[in-house]
Amino acid sequence: MSRRARIVLACLVALAVGLEVAVRSFRGAPGKILIRNDGSTPVEGLIVRFGTTEAAVGRLEAGGSERVRLDGDAPGTINLKFTQRGNPLNGFQIEGFDPREVATRGTRMVIEIRPGEVARYMDDDDPSPAGQLRDRVLTWLGIGGEPDVTN
Fold it and tell me: Which phi and psi (to 5°) does residue 11 adopt?
């Protein structure tokens, strides 16, 4: 490979990396939610909307759960629509969801659907293997959170 070809290839790689960084920065923070069906019948036609993000989950079996990633830059309202036999609710809204706060704290919102009611709370997110390694190194260096203690 000639020197000129190497320079062109390096420029193309740098351009591709720059475009990826730009796209990720404009997309907004990834706010994660976990939806659980705590009812005895399946949830049908589940659709989750937040700003311009829409996730069609579809069918969620009784006792099942599904992870959904919602992108956004500012707090907003999560809209869920579904049908479930024996459940008078066919949808609901959760106001004040801030994907940036959820992403920076390393948490996720858990939404539990039950006949006639909905529960929500914040829970620690399950980090990726790379995130687990990062957390271990930061803890080892004394920068991260509390070390894991097992008896």
Answer: -65, -40
